[in-house]
Protein 1
Amino acid sequence: MTDDVKARIEALRTELHKHNYNYYVLSQPVISDYDFDQKLRELQDLENAHPEFFDPNSPTQRVGSDVSKEFSQVKHKYPMLSLGNTYSKGEVQDFLLRAQKFINEDIEIVCELKFDGTSISLTYKDGKLVQAVTRGDGEKGDDVTANVRTIRSIPLTLPAGDYPEEFEIRGEILMPWSVFEQLNKEREEQEEPLFANPRNAASGTLKLQNSQEVAKRRLDAYLYFVLGENIGGDTHYEMLQKAKSWGFKVSDAVRVAKSVDEVMEYINYWDTERKNLPVATDGVVLKVNSLRQQRELGYTAKSPRWAIAYKFKAERECTRLREVTYQVGRTGKITPVANLDPVQLAGTVVKRASLHNADIISELDLRLDDMVYVEKGGEIIPKIVGVDKDARKENLLPVGFIDKCPECGTPLVRLEGEAAHYCPNEDGCPPQMKGKIAHFVSRKAMDINIGEEGIDLLFDNKLIGDVADLYTIDLNMLSRLPGWGVKSAMKLKESVEKSKEVPFDRVLFALGIRYVGESAAQKIAKAFKSIDAIKAASLEQLQEIDEIGESIAGSIKYYFSKEKNNALIERLRDYGVQMELNTEDATVVGDKLAGLNIIVTGSFATPQRRSELEQMVGDNGGKLQSSVNAKTSFIVAGEKPGSSKIKKANELGTKIISEDEFLAMIEQ
Ligand code: IVH
């Protein structure tokens, strides 16, 4: 029986790995998403029922885990060097000639794209991914294996092939443009800071503590360098082709050039063609093909002498500045925007560019009607990088900065140490009022079914003026708005009703008290349990909570000092919004587990129960671990605990306790 199960598990794993490869590496799926999900579910069910067959490289592990752990540092077996950079084709030519002269025989050059992400080194043993480490300082990096396992184009196990028993393969982890744009859109909705470019987004994602979150971000990877002892092959190109045959994603843009002209052709081609790629690139990398010649050329302290990177120039155009307008953000932040004569740049027509703040305007010494240089580098928002002063006409008006809010006329303020101007009229300035509503309804807050356009429409038609108005909205009026019908009105009403069940910690977050983000709201709600207790708390009492400092505490006191806010809370309470923590949601907050490293394993009464227990570890000051080691204090085991964990615990003599024993520990 168990043998059958084992065989079925293995067959499913092999099949699903293959489908992942077809989909994510070859972009040629052969089964439907539905069939894939069915098979994955079957495998997951079998694995749940038979934890003794757990495998970290199973396709089910691609979804990550919500166990957070700090990364351990790993020393690279071979240092991760960087490449010499150049922006000039002349220098590329010099590099090629120098290498040729040094070698004193014909050389071939492998031309590759320079992917603009974050580099990674993967180690495979017996065809299985065993470790993934970031570049770090080149000598040692972070072990991000759990996160990398969620990247579908990285094979977890290799089908049979001529790969060495142990090897490293290096490459670049990337966030595709489409994912990046979607992510930033979501972050904007949540009022979270935006990522400037896909590179930052990829490296930020790889460093997330929760691999389930990483899995959602849909990273991709290209591999470009195989290392190890006796890896076979005489040329770099051959190694790349081998890597491809082993199941790795190697770019199809790799070419072997036999002359300087061919290298230049490659550079010129990709300088424009790269705009059609789904991922960011910032240049090309040129590598001597022969591995013997590479060894002869050797390394400097920082980089190989057998490779160089040619970086593409950021695209830049010159156009006329027509007008500077000012946008008021949801937080009251004022952003100056340059309105330009339309100009074609990096594949799109640019009409507007951000000028960021008053300091940048004065540094540029801008005048209306100036000819300005607009650049679009790795960033997607174009920026003005300079002025063509030779083309400046006489008597042009300097661009100043406004002193009143363009939306509500309130005098602007500039806080000490901040570059931006703000409109302080948070309760009466329309974009800020709409912003508060947008935050309140957002997914992580009250999760009410209305988008930004809907809010604009309801607000502009005076159906809502603040968040409490959502609860008394007139269905008749609503269904008569342009673009709205009875159905969409009902849907909104339903989700408003449902929001009355949203637990208090999320309500507290939804109120939009400055600096009170999701995690601060959770901590404060857990510590004080009700809005009344928070309101009554002193500055000092608020600051006693872990991670709550002066600015958050001060901001909370300020919020409750305003009568308007208190009245709003009372209205929300009357409408049925949760203003205290439900006892079932409440967990003990304390430090009973401080200094202890704890593992939760096996299944409990419900799948959520395990997450709750894990949450309790953190809430009580303990640290969650994912694998047993000498530092493990104890294991909380449910039904069918992970057999490898139990085996290791028995070897080390680690204590294993039940859920009840655990609860007793924190409830004492
Ligand atoms: S080869 C010893 N090939 O560029 C040379 N690097 O400064 C190893 N990169 O850290 C790197 N695309 O993150 C190589 N096709 C490519 C690349 C590439 C992007 C990145 C990589 C490296 C940096 C070099």
Note: The first strand starts at residue 73 and ends at 75.
Protein 2
Amino acid sequence: MAAKDISVQMPVHVAIIMDGNGRWARSRGWPRLVGHRRGAERVKQIVKACPDLGVRYLTIYAFSTENWKRSTEEVLGLMTLFSRYIEREAEGLNAEGVRMRFIGDRGPLDGRLRRLMDGIEERTAGNERLNLTVAINYGGRNELARTARALAAAAARGDIRPDEINEEMLSRWLDTGDLPDPDLVIRTSGETRISNYLLWQSAYAEYEFTPTHWPDFTPEELASILARYSMRDRRFGSVKA
Ligand code: FPP
């Protein structure tokens, strides 16, 4: 008799849209930035919890290409928060075996933040316990347009032939070229849209939407979402044998 397959399906790559910081703060009569600060504390806890939950890749949406439309105070506050997170967490992340990377268009970011991003990417490049990717000034459409431009330039130089551009090559040229596609995308705060996040990469991802605002999102809630995911039937366009 064939052995029963009792292996549990767990997501290798979880991507999160960390939404609801502003509402969380406002509902308490606090400035939006307080919500973002609490959100940064949550990032630390979730990052810590991921390896024990079997998640090897975690990708978080920290700032979209559309977020520049917010007030100067909020944009600067978020940028300061990103720099501070890198400065304060670098040592701990490295000690915990976290490899930290960034996706998005770095061009418009402040030079100091960019140097911190480059530095931590370099410093943690050898780590394998958790791959943490932070999307800053990221938009799926922007990423696809930048990649199309890079491919066109390479073809014009004669480095690649237009007829060799296929899905696999395009995937490799994206910001996420070294990452597997996300298995599960989670959005907090009750909104049920994907807001330009990992558009190409999420073609076959499963989605989970929770009403919890990001500053209240706990490792326990993540664990229960993962347990629900394990029951899902992923067919990738095929049918069951
Ligand atoms: C969306 O909530 C959240 C953001 C645009 C910022 C996410 C940033 C953090 C969680 C801060 C820390 C990140 C790192 C990597 C240290 P919102 O402000 O749009 O919430 P709202 O919809 O309730 O207004």
Note: Strands lie at 13-17, 57-64, 98-103, 130-138, 184-187, 206-209.
Protein 3
Amino acid sequence: MSETILIVGSGAREHAIAAALARSSPPPKLVCFSGARNPGIASLSSAYGLGSITAPAEVVAFALAQHVTMAVIGPEAPLAAGVADALWAAKISVVGPTQSLARIESSKGFARELLAKYKIPGNPFFQRFASLDGLDEVFARYANRHVIKDDGLAGGKGVKVCGDHLLSIDDSFAFCRELVAHGHPFVVEEKVEGEEFSLMSFCDGKTLRHMPAVQDHKRAYVGDKGPNTGGMGTYTDADHKLPFLQEVDIAAAHEINQRVAEALAEECGAPYQGILYGGFMATKEGVKLIEYNARFGDPESLNLLTLLETDFAGICRAIVDTTLADYVVSFSPKASVCKYVVPEGYPDNPRKGDRLQLPAELPDGVTTYLSAVDVKDGELIATGSRTLAVVGTAATIADAEALCERVVCQIPGPFFHRADIGTGPSIDRRMKHMKAVQSA
Ligand code: AMP
Ligand code: GLY
């Protein structure tokens, strides 16, 4: 059947989704609906609608007008707003869970309780709160080692960690008081120590096909310094593991994703059809769950969709038709390094309106994806967030990093990136940290 596929969203993640779909055979017709016009996605699409991606009726109206047969939803906000529900109701198949299933990301308390109820390993201690009652006790037990999380989607601003944002018990109480004053329920959980990794799975509700493990870099500056960002860059290894992980860690993450998909089907009475993204920490006590996301990671998906060998449109069709069990999903046995080029001042006070100049030619093994970029008078203009993602792929992480860095360094203007992502010293530091955590 000839597909017309709607992509919802307009970042580099959605550019990578569009590029992977466009490589499929036969190539589907692509259309995009989003709040901004990404020129990379536009160049691959036959129609581009601008509007609110969290307004289900707007997305559905565009999809029906374009005779869309399947939709792929990139970001979390439309999932939490019920855009998948509205598309399914209009008889359009969707890669991306319905509102109820997307609670695995949109409610931190729901995710923790699901693991607890179905006896799935990976939870640290946690407790849900709607007031300050009982906080004293938890803070006494987990003094200097707790994390406080707004229970709803807070765009990355809802999590505060002891020793990081919370430097005293007064800071912890102050944040909780603020949450209560705004009527936000919250979760307090034990702070666990280790190295973080992302393990995403394609999921049709029953069958999961796991993707290689990836490590993101959330801090803005070299050496994991500075404010938290959406993610400055990521790497994967050619064996699809990560240098600091053991076979058992990967197996544990696979098992948690599999059991969470089964628990979600039971709890919500419907199959989870989309990408299930576990954010994990490898610790002394094994793999712990940090959070779930109901979508592709950004930048994680840029590495993985670049390495994906299997036809992506076919995988999406198998997800929505519940036929993933018939599918072998393979990724190129290569390492990859992705770095984001971001405007000076990002993330707190980013410059806007600077011209982005891409290198005239890219070396073999390098792919670029546009993110917060507009076109004015024929020039690419940065609009004030992560701007351009550069992905290098090669036989080793070191070679992939060198390729990526060579291209990133050619980009002029008031932009910066993290030169350390995927370098030998940066990976050594993570290996040492993992060893120190294990022997503590
Ligand atoms: P989240 O929004 O849940 O991903 O949290 C943001 C960041 O806070 C994570 O990437 C972790 O670095 C950190 N974090 C969240 N939960 C925990 C935890 N239980 N223990 C240690 N760090 C955590
Ligand atoms: N890379 C972090 C995220 O996509 O949430």
Note: The longest helix spans residues 247-268.
